[in-house]
Amino acid sequence: xxxxxxxxxxxxxxxxxxxxxxxxxxxxxxxxxxxxxxxxxxxxxxxxxxxxxxxxxxxxxxxxxxxxxxxxxxxxxxxxxxxxxxxxxxxxxxxxxxxxxxxxxxxxxxxxxxxxxxxxxxxxxxxxxxxxxxxxxxxxxxxxxxxxxxxxxxxxxxxxxxxxxxxxxxxxxxxxxxxxxxxxxxxxxxxxxxxxxxxxxxxxxxxxxxx
Length: 211
Fold this sequence. Notes:
Layout (H helix, E strand, L loop, with lengths): L2 H21 L1 H12 L4 H12 L29 E10 L2 E11 L3 E13 L2 E4 L1 H6 L1 H23 L3 E2 L2 E2 L1 H27 L17
Antiparallel strand pairs: 1-2, 2-3, 3-4, 5-6
C-alpha cells in the first residue's frame, strides 16, 4: 500500500472509530469505568451508584461489603436518576463520601447521604447499612453549611456587625430562630419516621432569652 493509500486508510479508520465512540459514548464509558476503576474510595462509591441506579442493579453486589445480604438499594428505576460526589472525609480508615442523589419517581427527590466505604481484604467496599443510616447526618450537614454560608454572607454584605461586634439583637433573633427550627425539626422527624408524636426535648422548652 503506498503512502497515499495508507493515509486514507488511517484517516477512515480514525473517523469510524471516532463516530463509534460518539454513538456508544455512554455504554463505552460505563464499561471502562466499571472495568478499570482504581481501588480508591471515591471511585468505588461512584461505580457503586452507577450500577445501583441502573437497570442492572445486581452488579452492585460486587461493590458492597455484605453481598449475601444485599438487596436493591434504591426502589424503582428512572433513566434520569443521578448520583454526584461532593467530597470525601476519612476517619479511622473509614471513608465518608458525601453524595447527592437525584431520583425521579412520582416526584423528584433530592437525597443527601454519605456513601460509607471501608477496606475489606485490601479492597474498598460500600457499607450499605451505614450508608442508609447516614441520610439524617448528611441532611443536617447540608442545613448547617447553608446556615453558616448565609450568616457569613450577611455579616460581610449586609453589615451585621456594629463597632467591630456582632449586633446583639441579631444574636438574640438568631438563637431563638435556631432553637425553634431545631426543635420543630426533631419533633417532625420523629413523627415522620415512627408515626408517633414525641415530646419535645427539655432544650426545646422556652428559655429566658426566648420568652
